[in-house]
Amino acid sequence: MSQVISHSPGRSALQGVREAIPLLGGYIPVALSFGLVASQAGFSTLEATAISALIYAGASQFLFVGMIAAGAPLWLVVAMTLLINVRHVVYGPNLAALLPRSRHWPWLMHGLTDQVFALALTRLPQLHDAKRFSWFMGASLLAWGAWVVGTAVGATAGEAFTARWPLLGEIMPFALPALFLTMVAPRFTDKRWAVAMGLTIMAALCLTLAGWGNVAIPLTAACGALCFYLVKFEKRRGEQ
Amino acid sequence: MSSALWLAVVISALGTLLIRVVPFLWMQRRLNSEAGINNMPQWLSILGPLMIAAVLGVSIVPVSPSAVSWIATAIGLSVTLWVWSRLRSLGWPVAAGVAVFGIVEVGVALM
């Protein structure tokens, strides 16, 4: 009986919600900024919120609004938006073996962002099979809800908000690197993984500083994978 | 927003959704199917954790890069790692890291 209760969908979804809370530290300030930027570019609160709810992909939304405001042709806006989001193509296959089959995936996968993917890939293997669907639903819906609400607040009161608490927008996003650090740290006990991950982190950092943040994730992960295949450490005698 | 602009939003949204959902469903159907594969390809299981490392590298850059924010980032990440090595959990190390990062940023701003 206790097994049944601990695997109830409601509890698993709540666990997902609880474990996705650190993501909000990064989501809310960026969503507020997007709402503010969109309203300054001439979009109404409803329009900015609809863009966040439907497209739901941070970097590409900023690009979308910026290009529209600059008067770019719509086909180019759509093409660039999809080009930035194409990195998501490898996220789904990585989670495919960890999640059960369900007719709800076509709409639930809307919530598969960089951050939700990272959290799911780390946590799902540690969860019982019966918990995984509800856990993913809870975590991804919280992140999506925070993004949509944050955009609406940013579009209506973003200017007043950032003027009143200017440092908050700089402090809260630190939750993201802190969270990702706790996700990659366990791999650093293995020398081969440590070298590949160290290289990936440093390369992504440098590309972002150089203004190439959008291509940094797929490009540096591919470099890290190449490094993982090329670098092999000889095992010491007696080591299995 | 004009109807053409709404159409651009809808096409971008549908395209992004398809990028997310089609590879997931394709892999799920191939896994354990008779004609498909039994396990995930090795390169994909290596690429996954490295994507998280790349997201970490991208997110390390502070919102407003300055000497103070870089120092606060280094201290915050060190504290996060230290708390994680003690507790091996996700929540508390993040809370401790954000708190210390915030203390350094606010402390310097008040000086």
TrEMBL record, chain A:
Q: Where in the cell is it found?
A: Cell membrane
Q: How does it sit in the membrane?
A: Multi-pass membrane protein
Decide whether keyword Transport is in the record: yes
- Keywords of this protein's UniProt record, alphabetized? Cell membrane, Membrane, Transmembrane, Transmembrane helix, Transport
- Transmembrane stretches in the record are 20-41, 62-84, 133-155, 167-186, 216-233
Report which residue ranges the record marks as coiled coil.
Answer: none
**GO biological process terms on file:** L-valine transmembrane transport
GO CC terms on record? plasma membrane
- The source's domain of life comes to Bacteria
The record's annotation in Pfam families points to: AzlC (PF03591)
- Belongs to which family? Belongs to the AzlC family.
Put simply, this protein is called: Branched-chain amino acid transporter AzlC
Automatic annotation (TrEMBL), chain B:
Q: Which UniProt keywords apply?
A: Membrane, Transmembrane, Transmembrane helix
InterPro entries listed in its UniProt record = Brnchd-chn_aa_trnsp_AzlD (IPR008407)
Note the superkingdom of the native organism. Answer: Bacteria
User: What are the TM regions of this chain, as residue ranges?
Assistant: 6-27, 43-61, 67-84, 91-110
Q: What is this protein called?
A: Branched-chain amino acid ABC transporter
